[in-house]
Design goal:
mainly alpha, 268 residues, 0% strand
């Protein structure tokens, strides 16, 4: 459980406890809340309709991504990443390429590694900036597409919940003449529960996770933007103290910025 987002656990766990509490309030009708065919209609229909609208590989990738949304995503570079960047900048500023190469070999962050690798290889500043911006744009496009798939799932789930209810009502009405009031009531409850499944799946699961993914994307872009600014300063052989102060100022300035605005703070 280490590293899991506390807000996600509280939200999902609290929502499930709320639903369970409402079910327990009617213990004599507890079984009425379970409708396996209706659940299959909601889950299966929602997934199949989403697959029709998007490539199946993208849908599978989003489903595999769901556990990751429970983990923290830092909004700024870690102290280790900043330290690696500053040590590289100092070695590069002094012309000690061997020390810069050693520092580069210890970097795990793929974005930071790629940028510093280009600096060591002697690329042009414009090429470095353009390459880093393309990497950021690619991440934004990919993760925005994944959030859109989650929102698509949220749209389809209530619709298929209603579809399951309609199937149940048709089945109930087809045998209306041979049924008593008790049987009609239980059949109606059995049919209506699929609408509940769709609403719960949409508003307690898919929509919140889509919002969380969009927020995570914003945080990752801020993270990458700060590293990019530091790498551009390192390319210009600025002093590590200036780079550190710039990163701190960048963090404070972007903390309150909405997601679409932050790119204006990154150098062209």
């Amino acid at each position: 459980m280490k590293g899991l987002r506390q807000s996600t656990i509280i939200g999902l766990g609290g929502g499930l406890l709320l639903l369970l509490g409402m079910m327990i309030m009617s213990p004599e009708h507890f079984g009425a809340f379970f409708n396996l065919p209706g659940l299959l209609v909601v889950v299966g229909g929602t997934l199949l309709a989403t697959i029709v609208s998007r490539p199946i590989a993208d849908v599978v990738a989003v489903l595999r991504l769901l556990p990751e949304l429970l983990h923290d995503q830092p909004a700024q570079p870690s102290a280790a990443e900043v330290g690696q960047l500053l040590r590289f900048a100092e070695a590069f500023r002094l012309g000690n390429l061997r020390a810069a190469e050693r520092e580069l070999a210890a970097i795990d962050n793929a974005f930071l590694f790629a940028g510093l690798r280009m600096i060591v290889d002697g690329c042009q500043l414009q090429d470095l900036s353009k390459s880093l911006q393309w990497r950021m744009s690619g991440l934004r496009t990919r993760e925005n597409g994944q959030a859109h798939i989650l929102r698509t799932l949220a749209v389809f789930a209530p619709a298929f919940g209603m579809l399951g209810t309609l199937f149940g009502l048709v089945h109930m009405l087809s045998g209306l003449g041979d049924s008593g009031l008790d049987e009609i009531g239980s059949s109606m409850a059995f049919a209506m529960i699929t609408t509940l499944y769709g609403i719960v799946a949409s508003n307690m699961f898919f929509k919140p996770l889509a919002i969380k993914l969009e927020r995570r994307t914003h945080q990752r872009l801020l993270h990458m933007g700060m590293l990019m600014e530091g790498m551009l300063l390192a390319y210009e052989k600025r002093h590590p103290t200036l780079i550190r102060e710039t990163l701190e100022a960048f963090e404070l300035h972007t903390a309150a910025q909405p997601a679409p605005q932050y790119l204006s703070l990154v150098r062209a």
